[in-house]
Amino acid sequence: MDVSQYLEIFLDETNEHLQNLNTQILSLEQDPENMDTINEIFRAAHSLKGMAGTMGYKRMQNLTHDMENVFSEVRNGNVKVNAGMIDVLFQCLDALEEYNTNIRESSDEGTNDNEPLIKQLNAIMNGEDNGTETADAAPAAKAEETTATKDSTEGREWLDINLNDSQRTVLKEAVKQGKNVYGLTVKVQESCILKAARAFLVFKAIEETSEIIVSNPSAQDIEDEKFELDFSLIIISDATIDKVIAAAKGVSEIEDVIGGVIDMDSVAPSDTEEAAEQTPAAQETSMETAAVATTEDVKAPAPAQTAASAASAAKKPAANKPVVNRTVRVDIEKLDTLMNLVSELIIAKNSLVSASAMSGTSSQAVNEQIEYLESVTTSLHESVMKVRMVPIESTVNKFPRMVRDLQKKLGKKMELYMSGEDTELDRTVVDQIGDPLMHLLRNAADHGIESAQVRKERGKPEVGSIFLDAYQDGNNVVIEVRDDGSGIDTEAVKNKAIERGVITPEQGENMSDKEITNLLFNAGFSTAKVVSDVSGRGVGLDVVKSMIESLSGEVEVKSKLGEGSSWIIRLPLTLAIIQALMVDIGNEKYAISLGSIQTIEDISPADVKLVQAKEVIQLRDLVIPLIRLNEILDIESKKNPEDNLVVVIVKKGDKLAGLVVDELIGQQEIVIKSLGKYISKCKIISGATVLGDGEVALILDANTLI
Amino acid sequence: MEELKVVSETTQFIVIQLGDEQYGIDIKYIDNIVRMQHITRVPKVDAYLKGVINLRGEVIPVMSIRIKMGLEPDVETKSSRIIILKLEQQGTIGVIVDEVKEVVTLENDQIEKIAYDSKDEKDNFLCGIGKYDGGLISLLDLNSVVLESV
After folding, report:
1. Chain B residue with minimal CA distance to A346?
2. Is B61 in Cβ contact with A679 (below 8 Å)?
3. Which residues of A touch B150 (CB under 8 A)?
4. Do the chains contact at A681 and B92, CB–CB below 8 Å?
5. How close does chain B come to A689, measured CA to CA in Å?
6. At residue B118, what are phi and psi to the nearest 5 degrees?
7. What is the ipTM for the molecules in this complex?
8. Do A304 and A356 form a contact (C-beta atoms < 8 A)?
9. What CATH number does the domain located at A4-135 have?
10. A441 pLDDT exceeds 80?
């Protein structure tokens, strides 16, 4: 069947489930007895299996099936969680991730069967459960559990279906031919987003073995999503009821499927009221046969176990309703369009402002309306921006797992502490910040944290700590990667830099520790004495730096030898619209991001001093280099050289610089537009913006000027 | 069927004037033709890049074919136009031309390919010569026109 239209949803959901599994298995490692965690894992594995199955990815299905079996055993208390098992499970997740990547790239799962993993899984299962139960027992037990725990007619909504004469004839005919007539009620999870799609998949799954005679609500209504959380079917099938139920349950986000045999003889032929009264009775009997059929499959489960499964079944609905806000999945492209439109609106508003100023007829009323429009566009912009913001959680969630793996690989003891995972950033930034962060964490683990022995000698706790803290700071988001390891050995860095020819020995003599640590961001610089596959391939921090700078962010490092180091990343909240100061230089207008501006000063030309043939000014005990923008931008200044200079003091990290401009125009909200690939050579221009009068002004990147 | 075949063998060109010569630009690359407007200069870029313009909210780079081809710099007149090109690799770019003349349809046998061994720098920007109405049109190879000079 054609499921390609669900491929995107499948991939998204698989990712979520994998992420969830990762987190849960990690916490399982900490707390192997936690039933909630085990149930959660079981559910995630089960949904994954179902999803892979419906999409026709058999290998993925097989692997998840075996994982699910292992958890089913764990859940029943037959197998204990141990370190070996966790390792195998993590390998399974990696394998699933690989399938997922393959599917994303080529919509094919690839050909890796992962036989060894499946064998290991089976070994875990068989090694400790004395072989009493086979793998197939798990789904059967599950089916049994649902039929056994629900012995009332509750949930058997198919009983309410009223059959018309022709349908009744069809059913009777089928019975005569020795086929089975079943009633089914399918419950969709409350959190399910595409109920119609799920129902469609259930229909498809059932149609593989059976013929659907009636559905309630009608097929059309189901397609139009005109149903609550459940729908009922009456079907004719050659297969056993268990098989049909299992097929329907294979679809993900299906909470429950209840089914039973319908005894056609007891259905009264004419009077519907009577039929409604009689069917429950008929149901009782047919239900009994169904229950017997399933229990026969399983080798008489101990009473205690039934109680346990009943308990877990009771728990299930509670745990199954995650506290989610009502959400809508929106294509990021649609958001981009929306954002562009908002940008257009802001440009239009700016035009209106300048047009009314130009015409000179600005009345009180016009001004008021413009101010009102301004406040509306500003809040519209803020709301759209908020929509684009996502918590960095999705990116940082994979790190605990990574650190755990590193710990094994490097043979060191360490622990990752994270805070501020709910800090929100623009979607595009969140998507791209993962790699740099991963790199910094790896660095911290590989170079920062010492081995347990060394740590002991240095009087530190044996287990090293790595911190990942995220928080909002004004218009920026700060992400800090910190470790309590050995810190940066500036001498070693200096020697290495001299050895590599990055600096001369003389230069090295005069460098401050801070300057030396900044050398680490040079291309091709790695201080690890041993090249490991974790870090130390010489492509590292320079890539981190350029990636963060491409997001208009900055990174700095603070370190104390023997006490640890911290890497601080600063990112702007949004990339699209900023507050900027507009300035005149010659006949051209330029924008400078307000975020980088410290102060604006009026300086007399007499106060400009020369240091090493460079112009500087002294401001509150600070010596600040002057940058004459007209020279850098090849513009002829309109200003009389004897007039006072207008100096915009900008800041980058700890460094300050004074930008000399001709005149200030004012503060304005500007929409950043890219200059495009074609003009990428000009580093000092970070973009362009369209002004109110339709003209283009360039945005100066103060960071590259300093 | 017959008609389709005919269509596939012809190419439409927009004829433009640059100095004394007429050039043809394949119509499939042309997104738009706009009047000359204020171009915002971008500092520190090659001379043939005149700057950027605002085209309905989009910022689009504009280049001078004349400077790129080593001709006299553009003189802005009433007939000057900016042709907005959409190219696969470089995206959207505007080029300044002296005048836009007409649209011609050339059949493939009216187009003569030219060899690439020419030493004349100008010829490197051509992909063929079209014969039309007794006159000749140099057909621009847009990719090499727009390609960044190293």
Report:
1. B57
2. yes
3. none
4. no
5. 8
6. -60, 140
7. 0.81
8. no
9. 1.20.120.160
10. yes
Is B43's CB within 8 Å of A682's CB?
Answer: yes
> DSSP letters of A381-392?
HHHHHHHHEEET
Beta-bridge partners for A188: A254
Across A33-42, A127-136, A523-532, B134-143, the highest mean pLDDT is recorded for B134-143
CATH topology of domain A144-320: Alpha-Beta Plaits (3.30.70)
What are the catalytic residues of A?
46, 68, 443
Contacts of B145 in chain A (CB under 8 A): none
Number of helices and strands in chain B (H, E): 3, 11
| Residue ranges of chain A whose CB lies within 8 Å of a chain B CB | 340, 343-344, 347, 588, 632-635, 673-679, 681-685, 688-690, 694-698
Q: Which of A343, A679, A696 sits opposite B49 (nearest CB)?
A: A679
- Bridge partners (DSSP) of residue A139 are none
State whether residue A201 is helix, strand or coil.
Answer: helix
Interface of B with A in 90-109 (CB under 8 A): 90-93
Per-residue confidence band for A185, with pLDDT thresholds at 50, 70 and 90: confident
Other CB atoms within 10 Å distance of the CB of residue A204 = 15
Decide if pLDDT at A234 tops 60.
Answer: yes
pLDDT greater than 70 at residue A146: no
Cβ-Cβ contacts under 8 Å between A and B: the total is 74
Per-residue HEC secondary structure of B55-112 comes to ECCEEEEEEEHHHHCCCCCCCCCCCCEEEEEEECCCEEEEEEECEEEEEEEEEHHHEE
A49 closest CA partner among A33, A26, A68: A68
All domains in chain B, ordered by first residue: 2-146 (2.40.50.180)
C-beta atoms of A682 and B38 within 8 A: no
pLDDT tens figures, A319-329:
444 444 567 77
- Specify the CATH superfamily of domain A392-572: Histidine kinase-like ATPase, C-terminal domain (3.30.565.10)
> Is A681–B44 a contact, with Cβ atoms under 8 angstroms apart?
yes
Chain B partners of A632 at a C-beta cutoff of 8 Å? 43
Q: Which residues contact B30 (CB under 8 A, 6 or more apart)?
A: B14, B83, B84, B85, B86
The secondary structure element, H or E, covering residue A427 is: helix A427-443
- Burial status of residue A103 (CB atoms within 10 A of its CB: 0-12, 13-18, 19 or more): buried
Helix axes A35-55, A58-75, angle to 10 degrees: 160
Query: Which is the CATH superfamily of the domain at A577-705?
Result: CheA-289, Domain 4 (2.40.50.180)
Interface of B with A in 24-63 (CB under 8 A): 38, 40-46, 49, 51-54, 57-61
Cβ-defined contact of A690 to B54 (cutoff 8 Å): yes
Looking at residue A633, its amino acid is: L
Question: Smallest CA–CA separation between A521 and chain B, in Å?
Answer: 26
Q: Which of A582, A693, A696, A704 to mutate to test the interface with B (most CBs of B within 10 A)?
A: A696
Identify residue A335 by its one-letter amino acid code. L
pLDDT band at A681 (very low <50, low <70, confident <90, very high): low
Report strand pairing: A614-619 vs A622-628: antiparallel
Whether residues A698 and B40 touch (CB distance < 8 A) is answered with yes
The answer on pLDDT for A77 being more than 70 is yes
With contact defined as beta carbons under 8 Å apart, do A576 and A686 qualify? no
CB neighbours (10 Å) of residue A14? 25
| Inter-chain CB proximity A682 and B58 less than 8 Å | no
The whole-angstrom distance between B64's CA and the closest CA on chain A is 14
- In this complex, do B45 and A682 lie within 8 Å of one another by their Cβ atoms? yes
Backbone angles phi, psi at A146, to 5 degrees: -70, -40
**Alpha helices, DSSP H only, in A226-363?**
241-249, 272-297, 303-320, 332-359
Rounded to the nearest integer, the mean pLDDT of chain B is: 82
